[in-house]
Amino acid sequence: MKNKQKKLARPRLLVLGCGDVGLRLLPLLNRQFRVFAVTSQPARVAELRAAGAVPLVADLDQRDSLARLANLATHIVHLAPPRSEGESDARTRNLTAILPDKSRLVYISTTGVYGDCGEEEFDETRTVAPRNARARRRVAAEQLLRAWAKRSHSSLSILRVPGIYAADRLPLERLQKGTPALIEADDVYTNHIHAEDLAILIKLALFRASPSRVYHAVDDSDMKMAEYFDAVADAFELPRSPRLPRAELSAAVSPMLLSFMSESRRLRNDRIKAELGMRLRYAKVADGLQDALKRARPVPSQA
C-alpha cells in the first residue's frame, strides 16, 4: 500500500515570488504538482493556502532563511524580481546555493534585457544590450542561472516578459491623471502579454521547453506605447493622453516612466507557438480590453 501511495504522490513544485501571476498559475498546476509557494509576508499565508499551495515564509535576501527550501522540489518557477539596487541579483545568487541538482527551472526575466532596438523586429537570438541597472540585474540573474544549470545538470528555461496587463492591471489611473505620452515621431514600440496567457506559458515551459532555451512571452500586438494608452482610453471612455515631444516629456514624467518610454522593441513570438504549442487567449491587446470591459460591465440578469 505504501509503495502504491508513493507512485501516486505528486511531484513537488516550488514557486518563488508568488504574486499576481503566481496566483493565476497555481490552479493550472495543482493537479500535477504539490505546490509550495514562498512569500516573505506572513500575512499572505492564508491567501496562498486558499489558492491550493503550501505556504512557506522565507526571505530571499537572507540566505539563512532559505535553508528549509533546499532539496524541497525539483521543479521551480522563479518569479521573484531582483532588489531595486545594485548591478547584480543577490536573490538569485542566494537561490542557486540551495537549489537541488537535476532540477527543472523556469525563470521569468524581462524583455528590457535587449535595451533600445529601434523599429527592428527580432527573435530570441538577438544579443542582450541592457541600458539601465534594472535590466542589467536581470541579465546577471540569467547568467547566474545558466551557470547553476550547467554545474548542477539542471534544465533551465527563460521567459522574457514585457508589460503584463489584465482587467485589473490597466493604466486607468495614469489616464485619469492626464499623464502625457510621446508624439508619434518620438514614440517607441512596446510589447504586451496578458497575465492569464503568461501563466499558461509558464506551465507549458515547465513541460515542453528545451533546456537552456529563451522564449519571448509576448502576444501578437504591434503597437507603439501611446497607441496602447489610446486603446485603453477609448475602451473605457477616458480622455486620451496628451502628446509631447521627448524634449518636453522629460520634465513632465518620473525618471522611471521616462526610462520605459526611451526604449523601443518589436519582439517576435514564433518560438512559443512552434516549440511550446502556445495558443494565445488574448492574441492582441484589443482582445484583452474586450474581456476587461465585460468584467467591468457584467451582463444584467434576466429577471
From TrEMBL:
<feature type="domain" description="NAD-dependent epimerase/dehydratase">
    <location>
        <begin position="14"/>
        <end position="169"/>
    </location>
</feature>
<dbReference type="GO" id="GO:0004029">
    <property type="term" value="F:aldehyde dehydrogenase (NAD+) activity"/>
</dbReference>
<dbReference type="InterPro" id="IPR051783">
    <property type="entry name" value="NAD(P)-dependent_oxidoreduct"/>
</dbReference>
<dbReference type="Pfam" id="PF01370">
    <property type="entry name" value="Epimerase"/>
</dbReference>
<protein>
    <submittedName>
        <fullName>NAD-dependent dehydratase</fullName>
    </submittedName>
</protein>
<dbReference type="InterPro" id="IPR036291">
    <property type="entry name" value="NAD(P)-bd_dom_sf"/>
</dbReference>
<dbReference type="GO" id="GO:0005737">
    <property type="term" value="C:cytoplasm"/>
</dbReference>
<dbReference type="InterPro" id="IPR001509">
    <property type="entry name" value="Epimerase_deHydtase"/>
</dbReference>
